[in-house]
Amino acid sequence: MNQVEAEIGLRNEWNSEIKAFDDTKLGVKGLVDAGVLKIPRIFIHPQHNPLDKLACEDSQFSIPTIDLQGVNSDVILRAKAIEKIQNACEKWGFFQVVNHGIPKSDLEEMLAGIRRFHEQDAEVKKEFYSRDLKKKVVFLSNFDLFQAPTVNWRDTLGLNMDSIPPEPETLPAACREIAMGYSKQVHRLGITLFELLSVGLGLDANHLKDMECAERLSLLGHYFPPCPEPELTLGIRSHSDSGFMTILLQDQLGGLQVCHENQWVDVPPIPGALIVNVGDFLQLLTNDKLKSVHHRVIAKQAGPRISVACFFRTEFFDTEDNSRCYGPIQELLSEENPPVYQETTAEDYLKHYYSKGSGTASLLHLKF
């Protein structure tokens, strides 16, 4: 057997293992429930060095925490928040917000609802298992399972909560009411943040909203089961987000890390806080003014870890919106600040984004 034949054989074997895992419709939790003590090789990240986790433990860095109290009623507090958010998005691409208007009880119930869904009877959960992202509701493990070089130790419930949300009866009973209520509150918070970002960029307050940056919202409820060999894998590999902005709710277990000045910095859980980060499309629109940075979730023996990520995004599919061109905002350009990026459609960008697994140098190919 020559080298080419050997490589083809290994690839076919790998693909068979991926398919066998997907066919169970039980996700990573199914492996844990079966009592696995060694993680399957498809989850092993060969480039993952567990020692680089330690880089963040003695770090002098910490991501900014911003108080949103009074931003819609007090001019001085609003101006201070705008300055802090702008600075955080330019230097970090990440920040935490407190006093954001969503009750702590709703945050706790949203996390509990996602946990209830993932820990319910497997046969009930299987009914939602699908890789058809045109569906309003999908349960699956790893969106890029068949494209990525390795598999993340994580399962996901995905809910498309756009301006035309799913019919209530189509949502899983385990989290139906809280998902509908929470997504509406996150949408309102997102509009406020887009207004503050617009003003911080020197634009009209409604500029990003009028570009429909807050129009489409996806809620992803992630479940990270305890991992028997956390040093070999990741909950989510290093990536940047593809949309405009993400608002993340995480439980108190921790594990989220942000790459800042070439080192991994922990994003510590703050009770009642939400994490906000810039997506690739907002970096593109602002011509590199705001930064979409790489982040990851480390695997842990403790768990499960629960998080809820709400993505303000472009359209996914072949629609008129999907073929809309996006490029740097004209009002931000000048002779001193020429466009950094070519225009792209959401369709072309997302095909590139997912072609080798999400978030691999996803904007680099658009640079002039």
Order of helices and strands: HHEHEHHEEHHEEEEEEHEEEEH
Overall radius of gyration? 20 Å
CATH evolutionary superfamily: B-lactam Antibiotic, Isopenicillin N Synthase, Chain
Instruction: Provide the helix percentage.
Output: 25-40%
Output the structural class: alpha+beta
Largest sheet: 8 strands, mixed
> Quick check: average pLDDT?
91
Number of helices: 9
For the biggest β-sheet, the strand order reads 1-2-10-7-12-5-4-3
List the helices and strands and how they pair.
Elements lengths: L2 H21 L3 H7 L31 E3 L7 H17 L2 E5 L5 H16 L2 H5 L10 E4 L14 E6 L15 H25 L6 H4 L5 E9 L9 E6 L5 E6 L5 E5 L2 E4 L7 E5 L1 H6 L9 E4 L6 E9 L11 E2 L17 E2 H10 L13
Helix pairs in contact: 3-6, 4-6
Describe the model:
There is one protein chain. The protein is of the alpha+beta class and 368 residues long. The protein has one domain: Jelly Rolls (Sandwich), CATH 2.60.120. The chain has helices at 3-23, 27-33, 75-91, 104-119, 122-126, 176-200, 207-210, 280-285, 346-355; strands at 65-67, 94-98, 137-140, 155-160, 216-224, 234-239, 245-250, 256-260, 263-266, 274-278, 295-298, 305-313, 325-326, 344-345. It has an 8-stranded mixed β-sheet. It has a 4-stranded antiparallel β-sheet with strand order 6-11-8-9, with no helix packed on it. The protein has a two-stranded antiparallel ribbon with strand order 13-14. Strand 8 and strand 9 form a beta hairpin. It is globular and about 65 Å long. It starts with a helix and ends in a 13-residue tail after the last helix. Its cofactor is Fe cation. InterPro entries: DIOX_N (IPR026992), IPNS-like_FE2OG_OXY (IPR044861), IPNS-like_sf (IPR027443), Oxoglu/Fe-dep_dioxygenase_dom (IPR005123). Belongs to the iron/ascorbate-dependent oxidoreductase family. This is Fe2OG dioxygenase domain-containing protein.
